[in-house]
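hey so i finaly got around to running the thing on Cysteine desulfurase from Alcanivorax nanhaiticus. pasting the sequence first so u can double check i didnt mess up the copy paste, my clipboard has been acting weird all day
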Amino acid sequence: MTSKALDINALRAQFPILDQQVNGKPLVYLDNGATTQKPVAVLDALQNYYRGVNSNVHRGAHYLSDEATGQFEGARQTVADFLNASREEILWTKGTTESINIVAQCVAREQLQPGDEVLIATSEHHANIVPWQQACLAKGATLKVIPLHDDCSLDLDAFDQLLSEKTKIFAIGHASNALGTLNPVKEMVAKAKAVGSITLVDGAQAVAHFPVDVQDLGVDFYAFSGHKLFAPTGIGVLYGRRDLLEAMPPYQTGGEMIEVVTFEKSTWNQLPYKFEAGTPNIAGAIGLAAAINWLDNQDRAALEAHENALLARATEQAQAFGGLKIIGTAASKVSVLSFLLDGGHPADVGMLLDKQGVAVRTGHHCTMPLMDSLGIPGTVRASFSIYNTLDEVDRLFEALEKVKTFL
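ok and heres what it spat out for the 3d tokens, dont ask me to read them lol
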């Protein structure tokens, strides 16, 4: 029990994968920034779909197809309500990466001109760098990058200087996967829109930690992945403003996204199907809705307070731990602790932690430009979620003490 509002043992009991041993030690899973574990409610939803409803959606003239279609489109409405959007503005994708690529292909490559600029930040995931980089190369535009302060927070003065009427696209991570830094996206989006820029927020590292309202943010596009939100892999979401989606060409062509096809020409389906060629990940969408419904039934304020307590405990112990350097000390963070240990390559530290049952992620975390700017090869990253405990934070540092002796 971490508070009167949160029974951590009851919460953990809903995640069966946590109840196991790794290398003879109870599992401490601290790789939630890469993917979260799934509650029984999600596992049951997937099984129920495949055992009782499995069928293709939309045009089937039979009971199973009707049932599958109802659940699939109900899932879209669940996501729309989750983000405070309209169902026509919710596109199913494979994940955040594909969501960003859709905007880069269908907006950036269509609209950018030589001399135009795309603005991102030093801390971005590769998925929010490479699509824009390639679009700029193809169109003769320029990729501009917001630098960081020493604490790895964004240099907002530099952002103000870089932003101009040349900025046609502004793409920013809501929270950094490598650092945990929480960016002031609402204020930044407002400034970008004031100069006429299209705006996109990468929410992959945000939606599991706190509620997101795309209307409040004022953003044009918002992307996230289901597997970081207690849902299955292979399912993601792109929210887009309806008027922008209407004006965009399709990302892929084929079945489902068409209205009429002849050998001479084709016309496109209405939103959101215009961007959903082929058979979709039906089970993934249903699993994502189950994850959202499960999360909405929790006390989210209590969960957020619990994650903050985990990060505070980890930060306090890290600051007192000899030979450990925290990478990313911004005042506003989600529950991510990245660090280096004197004398140990991150990969070696991660391997030695795994021998003690502690699962972390090591390396550049798909943020090579960030690591280059910091002059380091990568970090050890412990990323906490709602089902982690204060005891597990302690176990991390007990294991690090043994790592020090090995090194």
